[in-house]
């Protein structure tokens, strides 16, 4: 199991320090992997290391924009907005969440965070720094994407790097200090309830707030150093009934009893997956695939290829590839692409055949002007590599 997979396992098991360690090693090996920064930011946030969470989220935004991947941009901006919220930069958090809403107004967690921001802003003076927007759409930072050397000494591996340091940005320069205290927590469940315990001592009952919603929990209380401590779970593994849930604060702990909305459902973890899963091939929108269709040409010249069998006749392959749709038996994804292929122009068909075959099924282009004169290298999913056979 590689470090990214181990980090994911640790994150889902609420072992945040372990997750941070594994994702840090994964980033050393693949410093351009956006998802690793998003996941490490999540681990930092859930372990109350909010400046580090924001730094990773901002790096993810920058890298996602360089790759021009809409889903990654949205996910990294969402993680950035959450980090800003925990740093008390509520106006900046709303600014970033508005970016997420423009990209995906159906993002399931937006309403929750926007509601939390409204509550936090209640009673805050208009001229307060927390009401001022200083964030920009894309953070003005540089991210080093040079992989770390494969063999390094133990002392060198432990030495801090410029990339791992928390660099101030326009969004973090005025961030308030956050508490260093990190109480431990525990939880157990039965068929009816999930009992969560935060082992925090001497929490002032009159100044603590515990907000239980159907898919989130937010605990806030003041610390002796003047800062507020915030503990958040969002979203739950499954929904709860807030009206039938309860909490109590004792001298040694805060205990929350969450009433399961669906009794008998076994929770594997406290938190579910915050990010939307990447779209599968069957969910790719037709408009994204056909927007570059061009008019067919009468003849097609020969183009270079790296194939050992010599140059291929992409016109012939496009014409002979598939039979009639009514006679085709296969899954819905294959049927969808066949339908798209059949309705495309000759140039687009050649482009689809050439890009798909040369890339080993990892690239599908409809623009013959872009792919016709060059070899299409494989572009495997993030965290994977293409194998040569």
UniProtKB/TrEMBL annotation:
InterPro entries attached to this UniProt entry: CS_dom, HSP20-like_chaperone, SGS_dom, Sgt1-like, TPR-like_helical_dom_sf
Q: Which family does it belong to?
A: Belongs to the SGT1 family.
Q: Where is this region: Disordered?
A: 147-186, 367-389
Q: Taking every annotated instance into account, which residue ranges of this chain make up the domain SGS?
A: 302-389
What is the designated name of this protein?
A: SGS-domain-containing protein
Query: From start to end residue, where is composition biased (Low complexity)?
Result: 159-178
GO MF, one example: protein-folding chaperone binding
Reading the lineage from the top rank, the first entry is Eukaryota
Annotated CS domain ranges read: 180-271
């Amino acid at each position: 199991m590689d470090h990214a997979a181990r980090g994911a396992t640790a994150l889902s098991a609420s072992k945040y320090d372990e997750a941070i360690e594994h994702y840090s090693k994964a980033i050393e090996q693949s410093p351009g992997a956006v998802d690793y920064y998003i996941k490490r930011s999540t681990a930092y946030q859930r372990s109350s290391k909010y400046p580090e969470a924001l730094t990773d989220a901002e790096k993810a935004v920058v890298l996602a924009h360089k790759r021009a991947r809409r889903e990654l941009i949205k996910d990294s901006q969402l993680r950035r907005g959450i980090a800003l919220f925990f740093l008390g930069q509520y106006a900046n958090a709303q600014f970033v969440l508005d970016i997420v809403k423009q990209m995906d107004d159906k993002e399931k967690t937006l309403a929750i965070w926007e509601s939390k921001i409204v509550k936090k802003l209640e009673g805050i003076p208009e001229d307060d720094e927390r009401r001022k927007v200083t964030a920009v759409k894309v953070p003005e930072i540089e991210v080093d994407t040079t992989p770390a050397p494969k063999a390094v000494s133990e002392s060198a591996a432990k030495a801090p790097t410029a990339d791992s340091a928390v660099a101030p940005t326009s969004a973090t320069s005025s961030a308030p200090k956050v508490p260093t205290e990190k109480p431990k927590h525990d939880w157990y469940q039965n068929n009816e309830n999930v009992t969560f315990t935060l082992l925090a001592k001497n929490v002032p009952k009159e100044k603590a707030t515990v907000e239980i919603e159907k898919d989130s929990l937010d605990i806030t209380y003041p610390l002796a150093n003047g800062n507020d401590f915030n503990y958040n779970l969002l979203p739950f593994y499954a929904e709860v009934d807030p009206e039938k849930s309860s909490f109590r604060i004792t001298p040694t702990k805060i205990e929350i009893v969450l009433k399961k909305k669906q009794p008998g459902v076994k929770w594997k973890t406290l938190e579910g997956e915050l990010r939307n899963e990447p779209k599968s091939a069957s969910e790719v929108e037709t408009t994204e695939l056909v927007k570059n269709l061009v008019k067919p040409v009468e003849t097609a010249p020969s183009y270079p290829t790296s194939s050992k069998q010599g140059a291929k006749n992409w016109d012939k392959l496009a014409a002979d590839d598939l039979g009639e749709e009514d006679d085709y038996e296969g899954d819905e994804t294959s049927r969808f692409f066949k339908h798209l292929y059949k309705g495309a122009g000759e140039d687009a068909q050649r482009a689809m055949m050439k890009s798909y075959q040369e890339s080993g099924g990892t690239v599908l282009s409809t623009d013959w002007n872009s792919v016709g004169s060059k070899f299409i290298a494989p572009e495997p999913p993030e965290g994977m590599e293409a194998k040569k056979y």
